[in-house]
Amino acid sequence: MKIICDYREHSIYNCLIKKIETRKNYENIVVEKTSLNIGDFVIGRYIIERKTLSDLASSILDGRYKEQSSRLDSYIQEHIEEQPVVMYFIEGSLDLFADSHNINKDKLISACISLMCSKNYKVFLTRHVNETCDFLLKICFKLGKDVVDSEAQNGGESQITICNNIAKHQFKKSNQIIKDNIGIIMMTSIPNVSANIAVQLLEPFENDIYLFLKEIRENENYLDNIKLVTKDGKERKLSKNTREKVMELCG
Asked: Name one GO biological process term (predicted).
């Protein structure tokens, strides 16, 4: 049985390899790296998306949460004959996260419930990388016999087919990327700039990134005076590293 792992999932890949090497019951599981356009892992017909709580929060704030689920829905509809199943692994502690980020715990829980009830995806909550790997290996182990039996009937092509389709699948521009969030998405590609920081930086300019860029280029001290609002309502200055990185790439 094989776990197809996206090449960007370095920590998970390394952890899986170590666990397989030290556990005899997993010795027949193979982990393979490749480039996946959707999902982070493929096990048989199961497409698995992994998100830390920080990833989930950022994707809710900048609109990628809806975009990604729309892409998965599109893939399922276009390849319904393969009967793909989507799983989400949400990694981290909700209680610890709620104390240090500017999005509340209820909204994260609501997003998870929406994935299960509205999208009919399977959602697993894991605490850390090690536990995520335990779930992946256990799923692979449990599904192994069913998948092997199924592939024996159709020439062993189901996992190869679904992986190849995911790797080459081309997506249309999502309707979830709109004028109001494109600037936020662009800003979050800057190191040290989270979705929450991007939202607050662009808010005075009605989310128009071009007006923001014009301001910081004409007034190079603009970011020095910016104050961000934290979850508990307090204000803090934009960190020096963040200011320097924004000016380096945008100024």
From this structure: DNA catabolic process
Output the six-digit token pair for 10. Answer: 């370095």
Query: DSSP per residue over 83-127, as a string?
Result: --EEEEEEES-HHHHHTTSSS-HHHHHHHHHHHHHTS--EEEEES
Bridge partners of 4?
32, 42
Would you kindly state where each structural domain of the chain is located, as residue ranges?
A: 2-168, 179-250
Q: Which CATH class is domain 2-168?
A: alpha beta
Reading the chain (251 residues) residue by residue, the pLDDT tens digits are 789 899 889 999 999 999 999 998 888 899 988 888 888 999 888 899 999 998 898 888 877 888 888 888 888 888 877 788 999 999 998 888 765 556 888 889 999 999 999 899 999 999 999 999 999 999 888 876 655 555 444 444 555 566 556 555 544 444 455 676 778 878 877 887 877 788 889 889 888 888 999 999 999 889 998 888 876 667 888 888 889 889 888 87
**Sign of the C-alpha dihedral computed for residues 150, 152, 157 and 160 taken in this order:** positive
Q: What is the pTM of this model?
A: 0.63
